[in-house]
Amino acid sequence: FITLLCTMRLQNTVGADGTAPGQSGTAGGTATGQSGTADGSATGQSGIADGTPADTAGAAGAWRCDASLETPVGYADQPVRITLLQDGVGETTVFEGTTAFPYRLQVDGAAGVTGGTAYVYLLDPVTGEATSKIEYPGIAFYQVN
Question: Are strands 12-14 and 63-69 parallel, antiparallel or unpaired?
Answer without folding.
Answer: parallel
